[in-house]
Amino acid sequence: MKIIVIGLGSMGKRRIRLLSENQDIELFGIDSQESRCAEVKEKFGLKCYASIAEAVAAERPDAAVISTSPLSHSSIIKECLQNNLHVFTEINLVADGYAENMALAKEKGKVLFLSSTFLYRKETQTIIEKANKATCPLNYIYHIGQYLPDWHPWESYNNYFIGNPRTNGCREIMAIDLPWIVTAFGPIKSVSAVKSKNTQLNINYNDNYLITIEHENGNKGVLAADVVTRKSIRHIDVYGESFQMSWNGTADSLQEYNVETKEMQAIQFDDASEHVEGYAAFVTENPYREELNAFLAQIANPKAVPAWTFEKDFELLKVIDQIEA
């Protein structure tokens, strides 16, 4: 199978590295920046092109992985589908072109796969499984925060998409985490939010949110999302009359309360967590690999049901719009 990776920044290089583990996949890079192409050629030995049209004409690829900035996704997805490519895209953050591209993918009979990395983490999968089986109503308190300049220490936050109000840092946090929250605790019935700008950062959007969420099944929670927290944090407590779990965002920090011993007990996983230097401790590589494998599996079997879809995301982005309003 031939796959083009469009956008050779940090995420594009991550996708290339993970896809390179598959011996039956031939990869090609696409980026308009010559420096990025040169880096990928040197690091991975890939042939690179400046445009999709050029790569399609030369290589006749089967699929595309889109790792460009979110506001560019809609037009790139459309171009890839028009060239009869299966498409994997990073999270979009905005619903631009959703209806058109979903219809086009169906018309072309191509997979349109949306990244939702946290649905492929063993820790969140475990919380989802246990929450779905809970026999009592559940509450949760979830705080996700990291100081914006620390997201990509190697570049200014104004030089990539989190500096843009439409694709801002807090919105990305919500778009990353709400899919697994909804999967664990149920469809959202109502939301309310208190938000403000508490920092002196050079951004034109609210940098912190306190969000109350009520789910259709009676579960409810509080989500604190911010780009203010100086020490990066990801912590959730889930509790009910016969249920209690906590997680600090890392592979070794998931715990469950044992009612009989009255102690919190660690939940261990067999496979080791892979971490790449330069990212926060709670950013592990395994789920990025798993969602790529799910994309490849869906190409092989179009009847396979992905963990997250454009249809679900379309509805969730409306909720995020409501939170930001």
Q: Could you explain the architecture of this structure?
A:
With 325 residues, the chain is of the alpha/beta class. The chain has two domains: 2-114, 3-Layer(aba) Sandwich (Rossmann fold), CATH 3.40.50; 118-281, Dihydrodipicolinate Reductase, domain 2 (2-Layer Sandwich), CATH 3.30.360. Helix content is 33%, strand content 23%. It is built from nine helices and 14 strands. It has helices at 10-19, 34-44, 52-59, 73-82, 98-108, 122-132, 169-185, 286-300, 310-324; strands at 2-6, 26-30, 47-49, 63-66, 86-89, 112-114, 139-145, 188-196, 208-215, 220-226, 233-240, 243-247, 255-258, 263-266. The strands form two sheets. It has an eight-stranded mixed sheet with strand order 8-9-10-7-11-12-13-14, with helices on one face. A six-stranded parallel sheet has the order 3-2-1-4-5-6, with helices on both faces. Strand 13 (255-258) and strand 14 form a beta hairpin. Helix 7 crosses helix 9 (310-324). The longest helix has 17 residues, at 169-185. It is globular, with a radius of gyration of 20 Å. The model has no long low-confidence stretch (mean pLDDT 95).
Can I get a quick summary?
The protein is of the alpha/beta class.
State the main characteristics.
about 325 residues; alpha/beta; Rossmann fold; Dihydrodipicolinate Reductase, domain 2; 8-stranded mixed beta sheet; 6-stranded parallel beta sheet; 14 strands; about 35% helix; globular; NAD(P)-bd_dom_sf; Gfo/Idh/MocA-like_OxRdtase_N; nucleotide binding; Gfo/Idh/MocA family oxidoreductase
